[in-house]
TrEMBL record:
Cited InterPro entries: Chaperonin_GroES, Chaperonin_GroES_sf, GroES-like_sf
Top-level division of the source organism's lineage: Bacteria
An annotated Gene Ontology molecular function: protein-folding chaperone binding
Alphabetical UniProt keywords: Chaperone
Subunit organization: Heptamer of 7 subunits arranged in a ring.
The protein's name in its UniProt record: 10 kDa chaperonin
Length: 115
């Protein structure tokens, strides 16, 4: 979406510039569950872990992602911003590690990630 909208939500009151990407994290920070259902407390020490997020707005120079894409990023390399009471993460396009392959050709034969 080139009009920098949130998709199914209201239009954002900001316009992204240059190569900036605004994302909304998929999972809240804190406790989480493992694939087997084990509760992992927020205080548990884990190695460097990447996180999934949904792209909600992009700048005019962003070429590889668009609003609505799911992307993989490092939550330690982020700048947070709050817009209308919702927390978002602002980053450069080059700080994204991967994008989910739903909209790419041949996605049905892939592992689910476009690298």
């Amino acid at each position: 979406m080139s009009d920098n909208t949130l998709g199914k939500h209201d239009k954002l009151p900001i316009k992204m510039l240059h190569d900036r990407v605004l994302v909304r994290s998929d999972a809240p920070e804190g406790e989480r569950r493992s694939g087997g259902g084990i509760l992992i407390p927020a205080t548990a020490a884990v190695g460097r872990r990447l996180a999934w997020a949904e792209v909600v707005a992009v700048g005019q120079n962003v070429r590889t992602v668009e609003a609505g894409d799911r992307v993989l990023y490092d939550p330690e390399d982020r700048a947070e911003v709050e817009v209308r009471g919702v927390a978002y993460v602002l980053m450069r396009e080059r700080d994204l590690h991967a994008v989910a392959a739903d909209r790419f050709e041949g996605a049905e034969d892939s592992t689910g990630l476009y690298l």
